[in-house]
Amino acid sequence: MVHALTVTDDSLAGGLTKRGVSRRSFLQFCAAVTAILALPESYAPRIARALEEKAKPVVVWLKFQDCTGNTESFLRAHNPGIGDILLDVLAVEYHDTIMAAAGTQASAALKAAIEPGGHIVVVEGSIPLGDDGVYCVIGGRSAIQVLEETTVGASMIITAGTCSTFGGLPAAAPNPTGAVSVADVVSGVPIVSLPGCPMNVDNMIGAIVHILTFGAPPAADRLGRPLFAYGERIHDHCERRAHFDAGQFAVEWGDEGHKKGWCLYKMGCKGPSTFHNCPSTRWNGGTNWPVGAGHGCVGCSEPGFWDTMTPIYKPLPAPPGFGVTTNLDSIGLGILGATAVGFGAHGVAKAVQRRRSTPISIRSAEADGNEGTDQGSGQEADTDGDET
Ligand code: SF4
C-alpha cells in the first residue's frame, strides 16, 4: 500500500515569505525549478500556485555507508539556500549529521517524525548486510534495522547518491561489508533514484517540487532515475563535443589540447556512457562542472560505478572501427553496450534511438504524461517491454 504524503501546516511559499524571501525571488525559484524539470516556461505559474497552496512535506534523512558527499551537496544548495530548504521548503525533522539533537533525543525525534506516516525518507549511503550488519550501527541498531523501521508508512523514498541507489563504492569488488542498495532491500514504497557522487541538490529539489505540484514522482527510466535529470547522455550536451566531432583530443594533462579545452575522451572521460544533466544544471550554483573544469566525467551516476567505470583515466573499451570519423552514435551505443551493467544494451539502444528521433520539447511532454493535467504519471517512459 502506498501512503499519502504527510505535510505540515505551512505552505512552502508562506514559509519563504516569513523568512524574508521576496515574491520576486520566489518566482525566480519557481522558474529555475521549471528549467531543471525541463518543462516549458509556461509551467512556472502552475508550480508557483502549487507551492503557494501545498504544505511542506515531512522529511527524514538517513545516513549509512557513504562519504557524506550528498549532505555536502545538500548544504551547498543555492536557490533557495540551505537555511530556507531546511526550514521552509522541507520540514526536515531528522538528519543525523546536521541536527542539533544527539543520542536519545535524536532517536526520539526520528520516532516522532515517522509515527504519523506519510513522510519522505531520504537515504544516503549503502546498507551493509555482511556479518549481521555490524559495519554500520546507529544507536545500537544496524542500518538495515533503521531503514526497515523508518520506511514503514513512508510515502516515498529518495535515494540520494550512488551508494544508496546502486551500492556505490562500498559495494565495489570485493564488497567486504556486503553493501547493497535501498532497492535491494525495500519494497512497497516508491523510490525516486538520484544517483551521483554526489547527487545534485537541484535535482532533489526538482523531484520534490514535482511531487508537490503534480502529486506524483517525475517520470523515470527503468532504474528509477527521473528523466528530467538522467534522460540524456552527458556527451550529447558537453561543451567539448565539437572537439570530439573534430577529432581534437587532450592526450596528457596540461598539453596543448587540454589548455585549449579539447575533448577529454582519451583521458578517460566516461561522458559517452553516462546519463546525467551535469552539463546544464552544473554545480555550486551553476558555476561549473567537472568536464568544464578540465577533468573527464567518471560515470558516477551509472549502475556498477566504481567497478564498471575504472580505470578512471583510461577510455572505456571502444567498439570495432572506433575513430574520429566513426559515426558518433555508434561510438556511444558501443560504449554503452560494453559497460552499462544493469542496462539491457538492446533496451538502451532503443531508448537512445527513440530520443534521437524525438525533439527535446516533445520528449519532455512525453516523459511527463498528459501536459497540463497529469504531469507526474510516475510511469517508466520505456514501455516497449524490453526488459533487461
Ligand atoms: S568524451 Fe567527455 S569531454 Fe569529450 S565530448 Fe564527450 S563528454 Fe565531453
Topology overview:
Layout lengths: L6 E5 H7 L4 H14 L7 H10 L1 E9 L5 H7 L6 H8 L1 E5 L7 H12 L5 E5 L2 E2 L8 E2 L2 E2 H9 L4 E5 L1 H5 L12 E2 L1 H4 L5 E4 L6 H14 L12 H4 L10 H6 L9 H4 L18 H4 L46 H12 L5 H12 L3 H8 L21
Parallel strand pairs: 2-3, 2-4, 4-8, 8-10
Antiparallel strand pairs: 1-2, 5-9, 6-7
Helix pairs in contact: 1-5, 2-3, 3-10, 15-16
Beta strand count: 10
- How would you spell out the order of helices and strands? EHHHEHHEHEEEEHEHEHEHHHHHHHH
Helix-residue proportion: 25-40%
Ligand identities: iron/sulfur cluster
Walk me through the structure.
There is one protein chain. With 388 residues, this protein is α/β, with parallel strands linked by helices. The chain folds into 2 domains: 7-217, 3-Layer(aba) Sandwich (Rossmann fold), CATH 3.40.50.700; 234-365, Irregular (Cytochrome-c3 Hydrogenase, Chain A, domain 2), CATH 4.10.480. It has 17 helices and 10 strands. It has helices at 12-18, 23-36, 44-53, 69-75, 82-89, 103-114, 143-151, 162-166, 182-185, 201-214, 227-230, 241-246, 256-259, 278-281, 328-339, 345-356, 360-367, and strands at 7-11, 55-63, 91-95, 120-124, 127-128, 137-138, 141-142, 156-160, 179-180, 191-194. The strands form 3 sheets. Strands 1, 2, 3, 4, 8 and 10 form a 6-stranded mixed beta sheet that branches. A two-stranded antiparallel ribbon has the order 5-9. Strands 6-7 form a two-stranded antiparallel ribbon. β6 and β7 form a beta hairpin. α15 (328-339) packs antiparallel against α16 (345-356). The longest helix is centred in the N-terminal third of the chain and has 14 residues, at 23-36. The radius of gyration is 21 Å and the shape is globular. The model is unreliable at 319-388 (pLDDT under 50). The structure holds iron/sulfur cluster.
